[in-house]
Give the backbone structure.
Amino acid sequence: MNIIYRIHHIPNQNWDCGEVCQATAAFIALVESQKLIIILYRGTVPGSFKNLFTDANFITKDYHPTDGLRVHRGFYNAFLEMQPDVTDDVVNLHQERLDFRIGFMGHSLGGALATFSALDFVQKVPELANNEKITLKSVRTIVRGDPIPRLPPGIPLPFVGLYKHFGEELYINNLDQDPNEFTTYNAEDPNCSESVPLTQLRLKYHSGPYFGDNFNYNN
């Protein structure tokens, strides 16, 4: 049975709670049948000035767990606001269910938060941080023509530096023929989403379709 274990920052109801409803949000769920803990981060809320400012605040800052590494300031600050509650809950769930797998997921802004959350969790659990057998896998799903994964541009910028993707990319290329078909590439392969000309990028593709389904936001 799938159950929501905890919701951070917003209630899971259709009502207006002002700025809180437009802030970053995390959902923690248990999938007992598959022995799986899922931490899901919500993406950018349309019309949320706070979310849009977070996305646009791409001047880098130090990533304190690792010397010499700099990351997106807006994404990292947003994660740090939620870090104590989310990480504590996930660590506690892991201690109660040591045989469960753990997945961190998110769309857009949520994908960045999920990445920071996964790294933070591994560092907070000694038996994971010191275990060479632990496997971390990062996968990005990108629809052909989505401009957002191309930001900031892959060129060095003053006060910003050079951004790079990491992990695997699942590239959905043939939306008209088969929206469920994808090709797997590593990091920033020039044959994947990076190959699409700028003139063919459309914001509508940021919401999908991902394997036939589109993301929609309902408060």
